[in-house]
Design a protein that fits this description.
single chain, 258 residues, alpha+beta, 13-stranded antiparallel sheet
C-alpha cells in the first residue's frame, strides 16, 4: 500500500467518524429538545413531588382486585403506592438506592437492584424526565418516529451510564434504559418502556410498559388520569386518578417500608 493510498483510507475513515459523531450529536440534541418540550408542554417544570389518591385495579390470576390507593412521589425516582387490598394494605416503595414491597399480611421483601436501575415516578413521568435532563450520567438518543393508535410518536431512549469499576462488562448499562414515546402533536408522554426481570436473575427479561391516558389539566398541569402497567404485554395494574396535590411536603423516610 502506497503512502497516497494510506492517506486516502485515513481520510475516508476520518470523514466517516466525523459524520457518525455529528449524527450522534444531532440525535442527542434532538432527544434533549423533545424531552424538554414535553416537560414544558405538561406545565410540570416546577413539580418537585406530589401526593395523589385514586382507585387501583390489580389483575392477579385472572381476577380483578379493586382498591383505594394513595401515591406519593418526590424528586426524580422516589415513589410509593399504598393500596387497600383484601386482608390489609399492599405497599411498594422505591428509589434507585433501595426498594421494597410489603404484602397485605405484612411480609416485607426487597426489590433487587436489577429492578431498581430504572426507578422512576411511575404514574407521572415529568419529574423523572426533568431530573434526567439535568443528569450528566445519562445518554439521550432520538430513535425515530413510530405510529401507535393512529398517532405519530417520537421514541427517545435514555441510557444511564456507570463508572468502569462498578460495571466493567457493561451489563448494568445494557439494562438501565427507558424509552419514552411522546405524541408528536401534543408533546405529552403516552408511554414509558423498559425491562423488568425475575427477582432471582437478570438473564431473563420482560418488557415493562407504563401507559399514560386521559390527560386533564389540573392546577395548570397536564396530568394523566389513567395509568396502566404491562409486563410482557399483560396488564398487571391500572390506576385511575381522583385527586392530586403538587409539591406536597414529604420526607425521605416516607419512601422506606418497615
Amino acid at each position: 500500500m502506497t503512502f497516497r493510498h494510506l492517506v486516502l483510507l485515513l481520510s475516508i475513515w476520518l470523514c466517516g467518524s466525523i459524520l457518525t459523531f455529528a449524527q450522534l450529536t444531532e440525535s442527542d440534541s434532538k432527544a434533549q429538545d423533545i424531552l424538554a418540550q414535553a416537560v414544558a408542554s405538561s406545565g410540570a417544570a416546577n413539580v418537585q413531588g406530589f401526593s395523589a389518591t385514586g382507585t387501583m385495579t390489580y389483575f392477579w390470576g385472572g381476577q380483578e382486585i379493586q382498591s383505594n390507593a394513595t401515591i406519593k412521589a418526590k424528586g426524580g425516582n422516589q415513589f410509593r403506592i399504598d393500596a387497600d387490598v383484601p386482608g390489609g394494605t399492599r405497599s411498594v416503595a422505591h428509589t434507585r438506592r433501595s426498594g421494597s414491597r410489603k404484602d397485605a399480611d405484612g411480609t416485607l421483601s426487597e426489590i433487587p437492584l436489577h429492578n431498581r436501575l430504572n426507578a422512576s415516578i411511575l404514574t407521572f413521568p415529568y419529574p423523572t424526565i426533568a431530573a434526567t435532563l439535568a443528569d450528566p450520567e445519562v445518554k439521550l438518543s432520538y430513535v425515530g418516529l413510530t405510529e401507535a393508535g393512529g398517532r405519530q410518536l417520537h421514541q427517545i431512549r435514555v441510557n444511564r451510564t456507570f463508572p468502569q469499576e462498578s460495571d466493567p462488562e457493561g451489563i448494568l448499562a445494557e439494562l438501565a434504559y427507558i424509552d419514552y414515546f411522546i405524541d408528536s402533536e401534543t408533546l405529552l408522554v403516552v408511554k414509558a418502556s423498559d425491562l423488568t426481570h425475575p427477582k432471582e436473575t437478570i438473564t431473563e427479561s420482560y418488557t415493562h410498559d407504563i401507559e399514560f391516558e386521559g390527560y386533564q389539566v389540573i392546577g395548570g398541569i397536564a396530568v394523566p388520569t389513567v395509568v396502566r402497567e404491562k409486563v410482557g404485554g399483560q396488564t398487571t395494574w391500572e390506576f385511575r386518578l381522583s385527586n392530586i396535590n403538587f409539591n406536597a411536603d414529604m420526607s425521605d423516610a416516607e419512601f422506606s417500608l418497615r
